[in-house]
């Protein structure tokens, strides 16, 4: 099982959105057995499933129209200190586990979760506050990567634009991270209203769901590009697919 943590010490920067987009597509369209661990105290993803998705599942079940399985991937709420205990118990059941963590990096539990992941994805922001927080956080990950190499551990991290708008500040951010030698994915998501309508039931590669959320024709291409690049960078090989 590959463990992918999505993290940034700046809150509200798109962590939950990025996980939802990737987990849904990898599970529903690429055939991976996916687990999402919601370890964020805000419980955004768990709340989306409970409040937005579960009622529609129950309605369809009662009407006899539910297509099983109801959800393409499993989702569990786990405390930060118990994340790897839980993953150790169920590691044989999944190919990929995404971890959503709180927006802070100043405690031991956070460092432990980050260090235990195979890949950390860092949503990139363009404002001054986001840029400063993100660069500081990625430099922490750079140190974790150095220590991991010394111990021959599998650890990588990448910045990723999860709401790209092509502002000059974003280009400045790219140049700054490149100059510091901080890696980032070339694929990105644009700042589209459709990504604000989160669902843990559907993939953005599903045409019916894209129509329902008002996604334009570019969404399929950018989601697929992001998934393909992550698969290549994280070495999620075809042998992992059930």
From TrEMBL:
Upper taxonomic lineage: Bacteria, Pseudomonadati, Bacteroidota, Cytophagia, Cytophagales
Protein's name according to its UniProt entry: ParA family protein
InterPro entries, A to Z: CobQ/CobB/MinD/ParA_Nub-bd_dom, DNA_Partitioning_ATPase, P-loop_NTPase
Signal peptide: none
Cited SUPFAM superfamilies: P-loop containing nucleoside triphosphate hydrolases
The CobQ/CobB/MinD/ParA nucleotide binding domain, residue ranges: 4-183
PANTHER family listed in its UniProt record: COBQ_COBB_MIND_PARA NUCLEOTIDE BINDING DOMAIN-CONTAINING PROTEIN, P-LOOP CONTAINING NUCLEOSIDE TRIPHOSPHATE HYDROLASE
Pfam hit, one: CbiA
């Amino acid at each position: 099982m590959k463990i992918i943590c999505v993290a940034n010490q700046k809150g509200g920067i798109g962590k939950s959105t990025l996980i939802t987009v990737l987990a849904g597509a990898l599970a529903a369209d690429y055939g991976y057995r996916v687990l999402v661990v919601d370890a964020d105290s805000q419980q955004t993803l768990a709340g989306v499933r409970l409040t937005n998705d579960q009622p529609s599942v129950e309605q369809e079940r009662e009407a006899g129209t539910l297509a099983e399985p109801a959800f393409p991937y499993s989702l569990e709420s786990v405390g930060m200190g118990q994340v790897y205990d839980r993953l150790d118990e169920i590691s044989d059941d999944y190919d990929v586990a995404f971890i959503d963590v709180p927006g802070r990096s100043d405690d031991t539990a956070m460092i432990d979760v980050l260090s235990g992941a195979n890949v950390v994805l860092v949503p990139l922001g363009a404002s001054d506050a986001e840029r400063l927080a993100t660069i500081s956080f990625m430099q922490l990950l750079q140190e974790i990567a150095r220590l991991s190499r010394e111990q021959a551990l599998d650890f990588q991290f990448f910045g990723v634009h999860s709401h790209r708008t092509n502002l000059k500040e974003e280009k400045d951010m790219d140049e700054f991270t490149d100059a510091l030698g901080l890696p980032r994915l070339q694929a990105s998501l644009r700042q589209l209203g459709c990504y604000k309508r989160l669902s843990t039931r559907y993939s953005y590669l599903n045409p019916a769901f894209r129509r329902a959320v008002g996604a334009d024709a570019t969404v399929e291409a950018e989601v697929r590009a992001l998934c393909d690049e992550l698969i290549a960078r994280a070495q999620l090989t075809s042998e992992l697919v059930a």
